[in-house]
């Protein structure tokens, strides 16, 4: 189906997000923690989610070969979250990001998928430095980044945003 790579872990498939994920993306982008910690992306319908995927996620995939991955649980093919590598304006290095629907949090899926994406970034795509940004209040995200081997570097503010974020970095080999 796709010329882009899909990855897997013991319990999960990580497949590049596509238009067929619009209903899931709509649900995720409007979940309470997404809105609180990541922000409202003005995706208020499945049609808007399909446009968001096409305009915001797919161009980087086509340009670099990696982007946002839909995390699918192998046991029942449920779409449970996203994890990806993002070429983000205003950040040095490639940003690792993750988000899960509330029903699938605290089950190790975040670490399992992000650890795989970290390894893929370093080994498959040859990325030398990974970054992770998170809101000051998002303790779970900070802990996950630390568990992945990232260390806090500094506070940063991204272009076109006034919120001060915590920047974590991972340099080296997995």
Topology readout:
Layout: E1 7-8, E2 12-16, H1 22-29, H2 32-38, H3 46-64, E3 68-73, E4 79-86, E5 94-100, H4 109-123, E6 129-135, H5 139-147, E7 151-156, E8 165-171
Parallel strand pairs: 5-6
Antiparallel strand pairs: 1-2, 2-3, 3-4, 4-5, 6-8, 7-8
Helix pairs in contact: 1-3
Description:
The protein has 174 residues and is of the alpha+beta class. The protein has one domain (7-171): Gcn5-related N-acetyltransferase (GNAT) (Aminopeptidase, 3-Layer(aba) Sandwich), CATH 3.40.630. It is built from five helices and eight strands; from the N terminus they run E-E-H-H-H-E-E-E-H-E-H-E-E. Helix 1 (22-29) packs across helix 3. It starts with 6 loop residues before the first strand and ends with a strand. The model has no long low-confidence stretch (mean pLDDT 94).
Quick structural summary:
The protein is α+β, with helices and mostly antiparallel strands and 174 residues long.
In the CATH scheme, what's the topology name?
Answer: Aminopeptidase
Count the E strands: 8
Mean of all residue-level pLDDT scores: 94
What structural class should be given to the helix and strand makeup? alpha+beta
Can you write the helix and strand succession as a string? EEHHHEEEHEHEE
């Amino acid at each position: 189906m796709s010329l882009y790579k899909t990855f897997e872990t013991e319990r999960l498939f990580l497949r590049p997000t596509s238009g067929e994920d619009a209903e899931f993306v709509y649900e995720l982008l409007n979940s309470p923690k997404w809105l609180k910690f990541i922000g409202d992306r003005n995706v208020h319908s499945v049609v808007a989610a399909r446009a968001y995927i096409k305009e915001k996620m797919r161009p980087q995939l086509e340009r670099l070969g990696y982007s946002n991955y839909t995390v699918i649980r192998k046991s029942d093919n449920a779409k449970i979250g996203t994890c990806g590598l993002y070429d983000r304006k205003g950040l040095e290095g490639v940003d690792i990001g993750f988000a899960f629907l509330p029903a699938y949090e605290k089950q190790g899926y975040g670490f399992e998928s992000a650890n795989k994406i970290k390894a893929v970034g370093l080994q498959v795509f040859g990325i030398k430095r990974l970054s992770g940004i998170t809101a000051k209040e998002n303790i779970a995200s900070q802990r996950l980044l630390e568990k992945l081997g990232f260390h806090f570097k500094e506070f940063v503010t991204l272009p076109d945003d006034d919120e001060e974020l915590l920047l974590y970095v991972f340099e080296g080999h997995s």
